Amino acid sequence: MKVVIIEDELASSRRLQRMLNSFNYEVLASLVSVKSAVKWFKNNEHPDVLFLDIHLADGLCFEIFKQVKITSPIVFITAFSEYSIKAFDYNSVSYLLKPINKEELEKAITKANTFYKNEKELLALKTIIENENLQVYKTEFAVRIGKKIKIIKTKTIDCFYSEDNTTYLRSYNSNYILNDALSSLETKLNSNQFFKVNRKFIINKEAIENVIAHTNSRFKIELKNYNDTKIIVSRERSKDFKKWIT
Q1: Whole-model pTM?
Q2: How many angstroms separate the Cα of 119 from the Cα of each of 7, 10, 85?
Q3: Domains and CATH numbers, the chain
């Protein structure tokens, strides 16, 4: 069986590819965006099954269907809540909930091959997602250490910060370089857990040790495992920070 993966989280994509290889499925391509997917499908024979993340780096996956007619059965990849999953079940959509396991993978492939996909069903699914304003947040980051890739769970990250035009994440007292700009990380992180306190720092609520009153109605933040640089909440963000922290 020939398959294509469209997933912008490197760790999730590689995990799925390993599972598919263990079933002797051939992965024709591993794509990361709407743009790259449209280009690939316009120039290649469509696979037996398509694994498709709903939220991609450059938009919802449904933008792909506006530009090219997909003939493959689809397995949607999602990290939605239980409420949202019920909506998928009701519409008989084949889906995989992150983190993916082999048993669910086999079921999803079987279901994808029996699901009657048409424009009406895809539009209904798109409407569910947009009307509920569902969000999918990153649960892990892939960082490069020499020739190796290390996976960092988001919940272990104390903060993200920018220094000398480079973005870093801090986890377990170690700093790792990211390709993402700090500004783009805001939309990928759960706003209940992470807050951008100024132009240079996004902090994890669970990593806060102390919040100290500072000059000009600002706050100084002390993190449990980071003291390299003073972290001061900007005056413009102080009001929102107070709401977020309480």
Answers
A1: 0.57
A2: 22, 29, 20
A3: 2-131 (3.40.50.2300), 140-245 (2.40.50.40)
